[in-house]
Design goal:
- By secondary structure, the protein is of the alpha+beta class.
- The protein folds into two domains: 75 residues, Glutaredoxin (3-Layer(aba) Sandwich), CATH 3.40.30.10; 120 residues, Glutathione S-transferase Yfyf (Class Pi), Chain A, domain 2 (Up-down Bundle), CATH 1.20.1050.10.
- Helix content is 53%, strand content 8%.
- The chain has nine helices and four strands; from the N terminus they run βαβαββααααααα.
- A four-stranded mixed sheet has the order 2-1-3-4, covered by helices on one side.
- It is globular and about 50 Å long.
- The structure holds glutathione.
- The site of glutathione (GSH) has 10 residues, from loops.
- The site of glutathione has 10 residues, from loops.
């Protein structure tokens, strides 16, 4: 039975899972949920994921939500190519990058991205600027890590890159919006602010089938 992926356009967490599936060359059935129609809160979907969030993966009878859990599951079940490291040291560094992303980038990113995309809370200028400072600090650390390596951990793409990349793309998209202008987020132009991150973004964008994972509503 085919793998089914329930996702939403522009969700960085769903994007992680799509990239994982594509990098592993796994065929899957796309179940795109429309947030605007509340499809992620429909009773049938809540049976799969009681949190009413995306992504959710269904592989035969097995259902799993939480993007990092799904990535880890897919890697154990379909190990080629391995994405969670070839040694204990690589595995540790990959999980550290993912944990740092969840602890700092996701949390601060939400405070910046949400007001810019949805227009609510734009008056919390100090909070947005503090969060932007955290994001610049995190991006600087990532930029330094990428100074002499093509990928965040080891010499090949790993779950660290796949986990962090969609969040970076989301931040860049938010930073490019008109509503971001008054906040001087200090993220763009990326090639000047974080040149190694800019090259890494291009590297991920050059992956085969990357375009299939690109959020459809971002093209409009
Ligand atoms: N920790 C979760 C986060 C999932 C998440 O927050 N998804 C958002 C989209 S980016 C969502 O579905 N939001 C809908 C809602 O909360 O109603 C994961 O990694 O899968």
């Amino acid at each position: 039975m085919a793998i089914e992926l329930y996702w939403g356009s522009g969700s960085p967490f769903a994007w992680r899972v799509m990239l994982t599936l594509e990098v592993k060359g796994l065929p899957y059935e796309s179940k795109l949920l429309e947030f605007s129609k509340g499809e992620h809160k429909a009773p049938a979907y809540l049976q799969l994921n009681p949190r009413g969030k995306v992504p959710t993966l269904k592989d035969g009878a097995f259902v799993l939500y939480e993007s990092l859990a799904i990535m880890s599951y897919l890697d154990r079940k379909y190990p080629d190519p391995p994405l969670f490291g070839k040694s204990p040291e690589e595995a540790g560094l990959i999980w550290r990058a993912l944990a740092e992303c969840e602890s700092y980038v996701v949390t601060a990113g939400d405070k910046v991205v949400r007001p810019i995309f949805f227009g609510k809370g734009l008056d919390k200028v100090e909070e947005i600027q503090q969060a932007a400072q955290t994001l610049r600090h995190e991006l600087k650390m990532i930029d330094e890590r990428l100074a002499d390596s093509h990928w965040l951990v080891g010499d090949k793409i790993s779950a660290a890159d796949i986990g962090v990349f969609p969040l970076v793309q989301l931040l860049l998209r938010a930073a490019s919006k008109e509503a971001a202008r008054p906040f001087n987020l200090g993220l763009l132009p990326l090639a000047q602010t974080f040149p190694n991150v800019a090259k890494w973004v291009q590297r991920v964008e050059a992956l085969p089938n990357y375009q299939r994972t690109y959020p459809p509503h971002w093209r409009q």
